Amino acid sequence: MTKRIFRAICLVAAALLVLCTGCMAALTAHALTERFTDDLAREAALLRGLAESEGAAGLEVLSPSAARITLISSDGTVLFDSKADPAAMENHASREEFTEARADGTGVSIRYSSTLSTQTVYYALLLRDGSVLRVAGEQAAISSILLNLLPAFILLLAAAVLAASVLARRLSRAIVRPINALDLSDPLSDAAYPELSPLLTRIDRQNGTIARQFEIARQRQREFTLITDNMAEGLLVLSPSSEILSCNAAASRILHAPHDVLRRSVYDLNREPPFRAAVETALSGAHAEEQLTIGEGHYQLIASPVQQDKEVRGAVLLLIDVTERAEREQLRREFSANVSHELKTPLTSISGFAEIVRDGLVEPEDIPRFAGRIYDEAQRLIALVSDIIRLSRLDEGQLTGQTEPVELRALCADVAARLTPAAEQAGVRLDLYGDPVWIDGVPTILDEMIYNLCENAVKYNKPGGSVRISLSASGGGVQLTVADTGIGLPYADQPRVFERFYRVDKSHSKEIGGTGLGLSIVKHGAALHGAHIELDSAVGVGTTITLTFRQRAAHDANAK
């Protein structure tokens, strides 16, 4: 804007300078002609008396002068001319200055010679006898005058242009400075020029509209961010060139994205072939799904293109955590394989013993022993099937009884009594400590949970060892602890002991029996009762398992 104002001022100044120069030249030429004419008039006035008294003879005795003197009779005949022979001159009756002098007493005419670049001024004066005295002189033309003045004029013009440029620059800056100083966020606070008021008013209204639109956009952005950041699924929005436009908290956590992830290539986060294939498919305009393994997690990647007017404008990636589902599927497969193996073992034994008896290969006195082996394997099979059915019901959340107030100490005492013969046979002492405590639960499930814990503590103990069952209540919770002085669990195996059919020492487990589902039933029973399990074990020292239940209110317990 400053340059445009500067150019406009310079052009106006130059135009005015040229115009003024032309006017001054014209006025100067006119003034010079007027002055020259006045000089001729004064000279004619001086010669008038001589011409009237003595005529042409008196004019002939005059000394030569720069002016041309001519005496013309009333009929236009030249009587005297100081520069030419009167006899050779034509009649001047039609000359402009002659006719004006005859009519008005004086006459003036100017004739221009382009060849000599001069002009001749004629001044005619009417005498008393009707003749006309004419005085003429040559004067340089205005073009010749201007040509002589051209060097000075060029210098003057250059100085004027320079001065105009300096003034124009200062003036343009002075004009623009208040405009540049305007506060466009509050344009009405300082109206630099009244002429700008309509524009500033429109800017102020536009600012209000833009502010409202920005607020709406920010609100939508906050809502979008709030929704996406609270999603469990990872969400990524990509540009057509695979740049990240949006990344929610879950996606940052899953892909271990840095803080400045926006506008970076999505391939910086993951370069695995399935990930790249899904992104490239989505950016090509097709839907894609892939399974990813990131660290210890399993994720389903859903990539969808974003299209507008049949043109791909980007892509949306959705990362769904399917780790639990994958682990469940793995557990299901392991469970199926383990069940098949565990069922096959007793059935094989039963089939083998029965086949020997059927074929008469057993002495009569040995038949009771073989029948006992068949019976033991059948009981083991029944126990295994019962545990599997019970575990399946617990998996599906199907309680085998109604929830009711249960006094845990009495339940633990009953379990200890049932296990005492097995404990005495193994040389293990069973001790019960603690006061009566009440919780809400299913007695049959609680009984089986406690029985499995205590049975394992006896089975995996050492001769002369002990099992301590203790109960305590604190902070609104009830702790049931079963601690043994047995063989203990290696640290690496401790996270898996609650898995189905998992055994630390398979050979020892086979010797002492069991289905391998006891601790799994404890885990699922604890989940159904909202209880928390803690395991503390050391090899050769023993194992301690603590179940923490929600305590039943005191007045409810007393009511029972």
How is this structure best described in words?
With 560 residues, the chain is of the alpha+beta class. The chain folds into five domains: 2-148, PAS domain (Beta-Lactamase); 188-230; 231-321, PAS domain (Beta-Lactamase, 2-Layer Sandwich), CATH 3.30.450; 326-391, Helix Hairpins (Orthogonal Bundle); 401-559, Histidine kinase-like ATPase, C-terminal domain (Heat Shock Protein 90). It contains 14 helices and 17 strands. It has helices at residues 2-54, 56-60, 96-104, 142-180, 197-229, 249-255, 273-283, 323-358, 367-395, 408-426, 443-459, 506-512, 518-528, 554-559; strands at residues 68-72, 78-81, 106-113, 118-126, 132-140, 234-238, 244-247, 288-294, 297-308, 311-321, 404-407, 429-433, 438-441, 466-474, 477-484, 532-538, 542-550. A five-stranded antiparallel sheet has the order 2-1-5-4-3. α1 runs antiparallel to α4 (142-180), α9 (367-395) runs parallel beside α13 and α10 runs parallel beside α11 (443-459). The protein is rod-shaped.
